[in-house]
């Protein structure tokens, strides 16, 4: 009823005016105005172009509004503008890392597990990647095909991989800090990230950066960029950009219980090598390289064009293309197979990924008095997963032979989106009104292609079985939506925005969403603003249909993720997935207490129910029977039914996220001593579990560990303080970042005494109901960059991220898995890679 009421308020308020006009300046259309203004600003500040500072908030924005000529500080809902220079000064070569370094509400996992470490997804306001909508020039961006398979804060997500975009084609990024499902549709629960690309018809920019994680002695990386524009005829433009990126593993070496040759009394040594297995003494004292970043080569390309066809009509388009080859050392210590004469197996998981998108549109003016925009966007992501330097033990035992490289599976995800947007401004009894309405059709598809037979028969390769034919398939769905959005200005000081949206899904529930925002400017220096809205997120096709089998070598146990729609999953208590539903509320102010000092503060609350999380984990013979009934071949490996498990996804949780965002900036003119741009940003965030679902067989869906993943794995607070000093040809940037505490519930591992028991019964070691609480205490990071303008067109800089080589807190011995990480890899706190030294040269021609 609440969401229906909100929708009715929106549509009722707008209906009297629909016959008179329409608004819907698509975000891409309003961006043209923003780009022209940006070009003028660049020309005016050309003599000191490396000083941006507080000017970002004076950028005309296209996110969170259907009006044109709205600046960030004038917006009804809070919008943050992050310029390309700010991203560049982060020192990071990946877009996702740069956002995390410069914007406090966005975080990332310190290290993903297995294949999800090969892609990069952001989290906003402590919610998952699937709860943040990513746009490119106002158009919905397709997500990665790769679903996060292992438990953790990002489990089962398949967000947009920002790193598959050419970062040098980004003009700026606009972040809407509000729920906006009524404006943009599904996923816009935590907020909206809108990437605005370059569209200039002139100039050429070249740049290169290289660096390494010096304290680790690894992680060497470099990137080469080129972009430029030229005229298309007399009145059109083409802007092209390309980027090449390569990085080696950054390895955080650590002690490995399996290789030490000693252990405390009562330790579980069945998977140990030194001192346990014959022929392993040569490994004594070696450290594990399990904790590392991927080795990656990536090429990305982008193109924008626009060309007037007639008076008031323009053809425009965009294309992006990215290819990635990434490798991750899949598992910890070596495997030894004396019977086959193998003294070392070090499996490596690989991902060959192709990401693409193409857009074509027409926009114009005065179609029966309306501005209009018609567009179509087709994009997708293909991810081919393989594993090498490993063998299939079952096949080896059966035939005496096993290959050492396997194609495990391929995932493909595509999205075809068609939009028609209309807009028009008019007056009602001298009251300005901006009205927008439009419609959208989207076709989603998801495909799983099974790997070669050796990857799934006879138990598959060690610890990493491929996907068999019964898990393969292709799934589609259509989404039809219509929206209306109106902005009223009853007085010069009061602005009210009302929006409503209806979406029809062919595979899940339909939804109505509404949004009501208001802003009152008491003076030109102080304004209050607030929003209340409801939202939703439909289950992704990956969440509904993905399945996977993990084989734990040496233990005789397996673990399987079963598709929630399958009979096998339903036998364990699974139910069909339905959309997540949210109610968002925020309120805040923006002010300029003294000239040049800008301060914004907003509090927010996000109530999210029917949240899609890991369903109940079922162990024992029942789980093994379900895995077999689905068709997985586990006969050669599943000898330990008691330790085997199966799980599925469910709408198993309701959470409440509350937080506070504060931002301030001030540009100090010091005359002959240059200029000093100061910025401070703070995010305080807390998520609490309000409901833990019960499966159809009467078991809670989440335990203490999985609850912590969605509530306390994200820092309680994050602060970014930045100072940019420019004087003459020099510029110096200093950034201080504080990451607040995270808390996770860790599994008791092999060094836990066998005699220790869990309060709820059973052994404490490897318990699924008793866990060890681990707190990552707050950490400060210091970043420094010094730049110099060699000529008016060439700039060079050197810098260090994490000057003092700060690392996460280490786990105690009883919580460290054999061959695993000495850090909590599920914490969204500071990276484990330590200090990073880099140099960069750029030239504008």
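^ Assign residues to that structure.
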């Amino acid at each position: 009823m609440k969401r229906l009421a909100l929708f009715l308020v929106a549509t009722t308020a707008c209906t009297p005016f629909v016959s008179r006009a329409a608004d819907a300046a698509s975000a891409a259309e309003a961006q043209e105005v923003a780009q022209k203004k940006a070009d003028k600003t660049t020309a005016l500040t050309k003599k000191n172009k490396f000083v941006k500072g507080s000017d970002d908030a004076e950028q005309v924005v296209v996110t969170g509004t259907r009006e044109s000529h709205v600046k960030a500080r004038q917006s009804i809902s809070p919008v943050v503008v992050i310029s390309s220079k700010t991203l560049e000064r982060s020192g990071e070569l990946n877009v996702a890392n740069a956002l995390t370094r410069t914007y406090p509400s966005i975080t990332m996992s310190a290290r993903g597990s297995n294949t999800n470490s090969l892609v990069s997804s952001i989290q906003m306001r402590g919610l998952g990647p699937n709860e943040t909508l990513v746009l490119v020039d106002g158009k919905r961006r397709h997500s990665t095909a790769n679903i996060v398979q292992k438990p953790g804060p990002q489990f089962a997500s398949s967000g947009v991989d920002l790193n598959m975009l050419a970062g040098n084609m980004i003009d700026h990024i606009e972040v809407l800090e509000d729920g906006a499902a009524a404006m943009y549709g599904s996923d816009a629960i935590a907020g909206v990230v809108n990437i605005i690309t370059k569209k200039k018809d002139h100039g050429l920019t070249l740049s290169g950066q290289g660096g390494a994680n010096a304290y680790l002695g690894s992680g060497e990386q470099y990137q080469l960029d080129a972009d430029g524009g030229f005229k298309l005829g007399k009145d059109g433009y083409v802007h092209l950009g390309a980027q090449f990126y390569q990085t080696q593993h950054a390895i955080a070496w650590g002690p490995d219980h399996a290789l030490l040759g000693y252990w405390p009394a009562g330790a579980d040594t069945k998977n140990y090598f030194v001192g346990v297995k014959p022929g392993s003494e040569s490994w004594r004292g070696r450290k594990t390289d399990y904790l590392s970043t991927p080795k990656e080569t990536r090429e990305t390309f982008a193109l924008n064009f626009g060309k007037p066809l007639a008076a008031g009509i323009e053809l425009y388009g965009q294309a992006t293309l990215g290819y990635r080859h990434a490798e991750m050392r899949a598992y910890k210590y070596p495997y030894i197979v004396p019977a086959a004469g193998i003294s070392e197996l070090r499996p490596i998981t690989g991902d060959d990924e192709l990401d693409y998108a193409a857009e074509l549109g027409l926009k114009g003016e005065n179609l029966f008095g309306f501005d209009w925009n018609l567009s179509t966007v087709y994009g997708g992501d293909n991810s081919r997963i393989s594993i090498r330097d490993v063998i299939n033990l079952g096949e080896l035992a059966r035939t005496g032979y096993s290959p050492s490289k396997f194609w495990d599976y391929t995932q493909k995800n595509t999205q075809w989106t068609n939009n028609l947007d209309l807009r028009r401004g008019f007056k009602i009894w001298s009251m300005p009104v901006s009205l927008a309405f439009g419609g959208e059709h989207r076709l989603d598809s998801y495909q799983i292609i099974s790997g070669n037979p050796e990857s799934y028969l006879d138990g598959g390769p060690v610890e990493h079985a491929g996907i068999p034919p019964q898990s393969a398939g292709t799934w589609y769905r259509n989404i039809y939506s219509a929206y209306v959005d109106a902005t009223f200005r009853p007085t010069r000081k009061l602005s009210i925005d009302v929006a409503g949206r209806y979406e029809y899904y062919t595979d899940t529930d339909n939804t109505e969403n509404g949004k009501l925002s208001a802003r009152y400017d008491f003076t030109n220096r102080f304004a209050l603003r607030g929003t209340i809205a409801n939202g939703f997120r439909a289950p992704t096709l990956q969440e509904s249909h993905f399945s996977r089998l993990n084989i734990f070598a040496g233990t005789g146990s397996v673990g399987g993720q079963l598709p929630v729609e399958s009979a096998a999953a339903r036998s364990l208590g699974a139910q069909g997935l339905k959309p997540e539903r949210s109610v968002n509320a925020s309120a805040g102010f923006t002010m300029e207490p003294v000239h040049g000092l800008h301060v914004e503060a907003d509090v927010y609350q996000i109530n999210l129910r029917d949240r899609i999380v890991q369903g109940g984990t079922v162990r024992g013979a029942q789980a093994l029977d379900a895995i077999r009934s689905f068709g997985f071949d586990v006969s050669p490996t599943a000898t330990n039914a008691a330790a085997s498990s199966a799980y599925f996804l469910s709408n198993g949780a309701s959470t409440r996220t509350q937080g506070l965002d504060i931002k301030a900036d001030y540009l100090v003119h010091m005359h002959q001593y240059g200029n000093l741009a100061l910025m401070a940003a703070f995010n305080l965030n807390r998520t609490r579990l309000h409901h833990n679902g019960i499966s159809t067989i009467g078991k809670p869906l989440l335990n203490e560990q999985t609850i912590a993943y969605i509530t306390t794995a994200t820092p309680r607070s994050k602060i970014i303080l930045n100072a940019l000093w420019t004087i003459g040809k020099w510029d110096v940037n200093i950034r201080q970042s504080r990451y607040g505490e995270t808390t996770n519930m860790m599994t008791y591992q092999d060094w836990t005494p066998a005699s220790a028991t869990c309060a709820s019964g059973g052994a404490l070691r490897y318990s699924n109901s008793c866990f060890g609480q681990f707190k990552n205490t707050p950490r400060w990071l210091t970043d420094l960059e010094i730049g110099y303008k060699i000529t008016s067109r060439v700039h060079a800089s050197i810098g260090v991220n994490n000057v003092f080589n700060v690392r996460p807190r280490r786990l105690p011995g009883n919580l460290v898995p054999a061959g695993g990480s000495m850090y909590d890899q599920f914490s969204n706190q500071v990276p484990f890679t330590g200090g990073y030294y880099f140099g960069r040269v750029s030239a504008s021609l």
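Residues 1-54 have pLDDT under 50 and may be disordered.
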